[in-house]
Amino acid sequence: MKAYDEDDGHDGHDGHGDDQAGPGTGARIPLPRASVEDGGHVLPEAVPVALEHHVLTSLLGAWALAACSAQETAAVEDHLGQCEGCAEEALRLREAVTLLQRPESLDLDPALRTRVLDGCLERRPPRIPVPEWATPYDAETARLDALLQDFGDAEWHAPVRLRWFEDDGTASRRTTVAGVIAHLLTVDGTVAVALGLDDPMGDITAPSRAPAARTEAYWRASHYPPTRAVRAPWRGQGHSIVRTVAFTGDAGGMPVSYGDFELPLRDAMLDRAFECWVHAEDIAEAVDYPYEPPSARHLNGMIDLAARMLPGVLAARRRAGLAAPGDRPHLVAAGEPGRSLRLEIEGSGGGEWLIPLDSPGAVGSADHEVAHVALDGVEFCRLAAGHVPPAEAAAGQVGDREAIRDVLFAAASLSRM
Length: 417
Hints:
- There is one protein chain.
- The chain is α+β, with helices and mostly antiparallel strands.
- 45% of the residues lie in helices and 13% in strands.
- It contains 15 helices and eight strands.
- The protein has helices at 36-39, 53-58, 60-64, 70-80, 84-100, 112-123, 135-148, 153-156, 177-194, 211-221, 231-248, 265-286, 296-319, 377-384, 401-413; strands at 159-166, 169-176, 255-257, 262-264, 337-346, 351-356, 363-376, 396-399.
- Strands 6-5-7-8 form a four-stranded mixed sheet. It has a two-stranded antiparallel ribbon with strand order 1-2. Strands 3-4 form a two-stranded antiparallel ribbon.
- α9 (177-194) packs across α10 and α9 packs parallel to α11 (231-248).
- It is elongated, with a radius of gyration of 32 Å.
- It starts with 35 loop residues before the first helix and ends with a helix.
- The relative contact order is 0.08.
């Protein structure tokens, strides 16, 4: 017997006859029936089924776990209104179920996106993968965009104070949530320009490529304070940057100019990821919303970048007379070991770095270690962001006090608007 009619050209029909199966024809597939929900009709009420007492008692556990059918649920609940013993047992079972289920936060786990992507990529690797050094920027921009998604006008205009460390003191600038996103848009634009993408500044001219100069020029050129409209170009630019670095196949050595200094592309992307996280915390604080640090792997990369930049900042501060010359001031030849400070980062993203103190070109050496500083990973990042004064950083310290002070102040000097 056929499961469906086959038009073999010998039945004398053109395939458009009536729907009644005649003698000698195969069974037809019945037409699909519209569901009650799709038809707009009222759903039928669940009618309790007649069950004996011992059956209803055996269903109490399944009812407490919400595992009964609609009819069984109706029968159990109808019975509970008549049987005091079963009602007490049902209450105990419901309380037990509550103890078994941990209360869950409405906020998504910040690591969820990474886990989902890792799971997907294990099953099907991307045709054009994002370079490892670009993934922190990709993750942090996505996390900040998720925070912004449900903001109303009041949140977009909430006051935010940007903070950094300048001339051995704190500096700040008042703006709004939308102003912070405009700041990220313009500074991320330095990476976009290096990659050959459009500059978000457009026809706006800034006195230099320095992040603060670009931001102030963008703010001044706006006829009105930035609004939620800035979110789309910022997010679009972030997508374009990640897509471009994935297609270029560059190892990340391309120079990106920040005005008075340059970073290779791989470090510039880490720098932008770090600033995105820091300013996301500024925004979250302004709207009184919790915000978690980056994943340990990405946090470790940000700390490593700061540690690698410290020798150059130390040298610049020494030339400016802001850092002590040390007991034995001398230049160390590039590649040679010199006096070193051991920077130990504890907790998430932790590790150890030997910071050369005498010259940016020197190599950190355990044999020439003169001081040891221990800091929590997030605390160190907030110090490098200028959010924690060097004198107040909760650090374990052993050894040369001047060297420790110089390194802590150099870490804070990494910050900028």
